[in-house]
Amino acid sequence: MTPVVELQGVTRTFDSTPPVEALKATNLVINQGDYISIVGPSGSGKSTMLNVLGLLDSPTEGTYLLDGTDISRLGERQSAGLRATKIGFVFQSFHLLSHRTATENVMLAELYSGRDRGGRKRRAVEALEKVSLGHRLDAYPPTMSGGERQRVAIARALAASPSLLLADEPTGNLDTVTSEAILQLFDDLHHAGLTIAVITHDLEVSQRAERVINIRDGVVTETTPVRS
Amino acid sequence: MTTELPPPLPPDAANPHPVTASSHLGIRDLLAESITALTARPARTLLTALGTVLGVAALVATLGLAKTAGNQIVGRFDELAATKVSVRPESGGFGSSDRQVSVIPWDAGDRLQRLNGVVSAGTKSDVDVGGDLARAVPVIDPLGQTAFQIPVLAVSSGTFGALRTTLDTGRIFDDGHDDRADNVVVLGTNAAQRLGVSRVDNSPAIFIGDQAFAVLGIISDTAREPDMLSAIILPNQTARTLYALTAPAEVHVEVDVGAAELIGTQAAIALAPNNPDRLRVSVPPSPRGVQNQVEDDVNALFLLLGGISLLVGAIGIANVTLVSVLERTGEIGLRRALGATPMQIARQFLTESASLGALSGLIGTSLGVLTTVIISATRDWTPVLDPWLPLVAPVIGAVIGLLAGVYPSVKAARMEPVQALRSF
Q1: Are B87 and B123 contacting, i.e. CB atoms less than 8 angstroms apart?
Q2: Gyration radius from chain A CA atoms
């Protein structure tokens, strides 16, 4: 079976004096259904990894296969199209539009995907129901709790039926109890078969994943967490 | 917390898209996104629009009022002058004076009368009576002055109508008197006073030299050629017979309103088909010319003001759109993450500013039209507006919005998505 993500000797160098190698000859395979976490201190290359995985940046060297597609051969519109259909983003600060309802926010997920407008609302409602927000469909983000907002964001990421859920510090703005609920949701999604990559510096969060990828100075090492 | 989950999400099976699906933003979605963004903050949107609203309103009101005022001036334009056409022989040409006067035929009045648009036409000439004095009584009274030097004019019967004379008493002579060269006269009111003729029902007679004339009537007023009022007026043929008048000196025509220009081009040909350029036709200044003049005067000043307002409005839209781009950094990052290309981001902000401009143009046009109507109403004017103006003005607003949005849109498109996403 084709892995969801396959990085082969991926390097990302930034043009500065001296040039900075934020990611060095990285090899990484994420199979379908994997739940991995990518951890490391600030400046370790986590963000670069997120950008590269999320097609927001392209490697200077090496090959990145997403669902078997070599993304280096794609133009801007095609890689943006892949971003719209294959990757669901979850951010630390949710990034919901405050003047739109939960449903309208989730509907944004399909805006650039080229999918027909017809079933957009229905699919958004289904995604919200998946994250147990069926009762908050018409709520505006400012009236919601942090946990609810993050679940709307997760619903938005799920709405496009992505191959990979890419979460950047998903619990960074949440208290312990709410964080636990979001992590539980991730566990449930993982058990339902979703491929998840969580980028975090929080050990609590990273320990929930099956595989833990450490980045330090652009070098990737994998550790397997001790399961309790 | 437990979560009810649907069956596993098999990414490939659930995803109907080919691997190389391109990013795509439909026009309906684009418009919907832009309108939603504008209506999210209605107060700010309206304030942003204000500059352009005022600019377009000033533009529309200026053009409308100029047109209205121009029209008004034409309406008040001296109707008397506008209906007056006169023809004289071209002066300063080659040849002697008798060749010049010969150009106007005796039947000039009849010829012009046949033209469409002519109300009345007739000739008028000074008559040289060789210094003969005019008197009302046959006997010369040695004690008082009874004989006077009074100017004598020869006219055709149509001349009275062409000059809009008012008859005080009696009647004017007709074509019959003219054809027969009858010894009849019509007196101007001043001439009648000097001669002591005040009524004509007893058929008074006057004498020029020793020649007797029957007085038919007295005219009390004339709209043109006031020398008629102090003259003794003879029929053309009478003047030809008695005083050897060679040719009419000038032709006066009363035309319908609006016909002056047409008659001006036709009169010379009708009077002198062989050499129309020997005649000089005087027509009133074209009303359209006057109207344009007024519009130009008003427009130059106020269009400048409108243009400045539009410039200020454009800067306003550019400014607020730029602020909005900076405020919505996170949203831009999100959209990029959701699959928007930089081009689509730019297009969205451009559409927003262009929609804002079009909206401003629409409101401004309404205000401009309203201003024109209100000012016209207070002045009792008829509001006049070019029909294309309310159609073009909103487009001007949209173009201004589009231009104002270029720089902010480029800035939005160039934003690095990851930095944008982490900005708040």
Answers
A1: no
A2: 17
Q: Cβ contacts (< 8 Å) between B5 and chain A: which residues?
A: 130, 188-189, 191-192
* Global ipTM: 0.91
Same domain for B274 and B315: no
pLDDT of residue B291: 64
**B338, B344, B352, B414: which to substitute to probe chain A, counting the most A Cβ within 10 Å?**
B338
B373 within some domain: yes
Domain co-membership, B195 together with B333: no
Q: Do A77 and B14 touch (CB under 8 A)?
A: no
B218: nearest Cα among B237, B235, B231: B231
Query: What is the per-residue pLDDT for B424?
Result: 55
In chain A, where are the structural domains located? 32-55+73-223
Check pLDDT > 50 for residue A179. Answer: yes
When computed from its CA atoms, the radius of gyration of chain B, rounded to whole angstroms, is 40
The backbone torsions φ and ψ at residue A151, rounded to the nearest 5 degrees and listed phi first, read -70, -35
Contacts of B351 in chain A (CB under 8 A): none
Q: Does B18 touch chain A (CB under 8 A)?
A: no
Tell if the CB–CB gap between A112 and B330 is shorter than 8 Å. Answer: no
pLDDT of residue B1: 44
Query: Number of C-alpha atoms within 13 angstroms, CB side, residue B251?
Result: 36
Say if residue B336 is in the same domain as residue B371: yes
Of chain B residues 342-371, which have a CB less than 8 A from chain A?
A: 342, 344
Q: For residue B337, which residues of chain A lie inside 8 Å, CB to CB?
A: 54, 56, 83, 87, 89, 91
Q: Provide the 10 A C-beta neighbour count for residue A221.
A: 10
Is domain A32-55+73-223 given the CATH code 3.30.499.10 in the classification?
no
- Boundary (domain end) residue, out of B283, B301, B325: B283
Residue B62 lies in a domain: yes
* Average pLDDT of every residue of chain A: 89
* Domain count for chain B: 2
Same domain, B146 and B224: yes
B182 and B101, same domain (yes or no): yes
Range of the domain at B353: 25-75+289-421
Name the one residue in this structure whose structure tokens are 């200077």. Answer: A60
Q: Could you say which residues of chain B have pLDDT below 70? A: 1-21, 73-81, 91-102, 138-144, 285-295, 297-299, 423-424
Let me know if B241 is exposed, middle or buried by CB neighbors in 10 A (0-12, 13-18, 19+): middle
Residue B302 is assigned to a structural domain of this protein:
yes
How confident is the model over A55-84, as a mean pLDDT?
89
Q: Which of B205, B209, B184 has its CA nearest to residue B137?
A: B205
User: What's the pLDDT score for residue B5?
Assistant: 46
Last residue of a domain, one of B239, B257, B283: B283
pLDDT for B169-194, tens place per residue? Answer: 888 888 888 889 889 999 999 998 88
* Position A106 pLDDT exceeds 90: yes
Strand partners of residue B218 = B169, B187
- Taking CA–CA distances from B42, the nearest residue in chain A reads A99
Judge if B365 and B417 occupy the same domain. Answer: yes
On whether residue B3 sits in a domain, the answer given is no
Asked if B224 and B314 sit in the same domain, the reply is no
Inter-chain touch A81–B339, beta carbons under 8 Å: yes
Residues on chain A touching B421 (C-beta within 8 angstroms): 91, 95, 168
Residue of B nearest to A80 (CA): B339
